[in-house]
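BUG: 3D viewer hangs when loading the predicted structure for this chain

Environment: internal workstation, default settings.
Expected: structure renders.
Actual: progress bar stalls at 90%.

Input used:
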Amino acid sequence: MNALPRLHFVTDDAVLADRAFPDVAERVLECCGRSAALHVRGHATSGARMHAVAQRLQAAALRTGAWLLVNDRLDIARAVRANGVQLGAQSLAVADARALLGAGARIGRSVHGAAEALEAEADGADFVLLGTIFASASHMGRAGAGVGLVQDTVGRTTLPVLAIGGITNARVADVAAAGAYGVAVLGGVWRDDDPVRAAAAYAGTVNSVWPMYRT
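Structure tokens produced before the viewer hung:
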């Protein structure tokens, strides 16, 4: 398995409900390849829909060298042999997920600060998604914590920290400078008029910015 990608594309229920999504997502993975990981996330999406999407996109991930991660649904991740899972605050403990998926699975934990990141590290997580860094449409009414949260968290955990929440292409360099390992994006790609073009732009920025930092 290749190293943890620095660019993560996250879905939600509205994205998964779009019947064109699997086709678009395949093109995104073909465009970004090893630079990217795709998170199949949909809290209210049926298991059947999530499984169908994940199964198709796992084939695309294997073909392109990208990662496929399934959020919360360990059964689906195991069924399609995804690279791993992303766990939320209400999910199973990392150790329990590891016992079900095996030592080779990559397990991320969503956190909101350094204390939670340290807990995730102690529990055996492989990486954390940290947010919300900037205000975003996905969390209306919630102010972003800013890059200071990234700096504080990176300074206290050894885990790779991926910044999420309002990460526009123009802000990638800011979170990289703050010490983030990478970024996770939702609206910046899937709500764009041309998601493949938007994903390619993010990949280009990520691949040019991170070589300047030792993360």
